[in-house]
Amino acid sequence: MKHVRTIAAAFSAMMLTSLSAAQAATVTVDQTLDLTAPKFIPGPGFQGWQDTPAFNGGLSFDLSEGDTLDYTIDFLGAQTLTLMNATSLWAFIYSGSPSSDVTGTGTLSLLDSNGDAFLTSNIKVSTEGSVHFGQDFGNADFAGGLAGSLMFSGLRYVGTLDDYVLDGTTTRSYNTPAFFLNADDAIVGGVVPEPATWAMMIIGFGAAGSMIRRRKAVVA
Predict the structure, then answer these.
(1) pLDDT in tens, 156-203
(2) For the chain, how big is the Rg over CA atoms in Å?
(3) Strand 80-84's sheet: what is its strand order?
């Protein structure tokens, strides 16, 4: 009889594990970030609620314990970001409430112009506070650390939300994208000039060409 109970208990545990795995979801979020639009804030960083719309649009989804967030930030057009002596990179999502510490397990990848990962962190397990999810990765989280000069065209965080530490909280709604970094300098490249800028450049090139032609005529 005892043997039968043991088998039954093991079967029940297996069924509960299978049920939990079946209920867990992967939430895929893709955002486009215009590096020239947002206000820099201490960090510096980019947040979806800022006056100038840094990110491409709204989002709304729930994350429950056991769910995985697959969160990609692509920089607008051909924009690139070069960081000098970077010490921290953090792609995350804000929630409205409640405030709770959150334990997560994930990785952060830096993307090239084709959207492919060329640098991926080690797997990190950490607990963060407040009303957000998405882990902060530093030098020690990358094999060999971060290069002194680091250029990338986007980043991707993939992490499982293991636990809401606050008692009674098992899920939260998220609605605001964000990206923070720490570095000695952050340089935006690959920016396509506005039409008005192109026009001014063309006029300038034309004026310079006319001056060169006049000088040649005088010399002749």
Answers:
(1) 999 999 999 999 999 999 999 999 999 999 999 999 765 544 344 334
(2) 24
(3) 149-152, 80-84, 185-189
Q: Which amino acid is at 135?
A: Q
> DSSP secondary structure string, 11-58?
HHHHHHHHHHHHH--EEEEEEEE-TTSSPPBTTTEEETTSSS--BS--
Q: Which of 179, 173, 177 is nearest to 95 (CA)?
A: 173
Q: How far is CA 127 from CA 24, 101, 132, 180, in A?
A: 20, 6, 11, 17
Question: With left for phi above 0 and alpha for psi between -120 and 50, is residue 66 left, alpha or beta?
Answer: left
Please choose, from the candidates 153, 43, 131, the residue with its C-alpha nearest in 3D space to the C-alpha of residue 88: 43
State yes or no: pLDDT of 212 exceeds 50. Answer: no
Phi/psi of residue 203, nearest 5 degrees:
-60, -40
SS3 6: helix
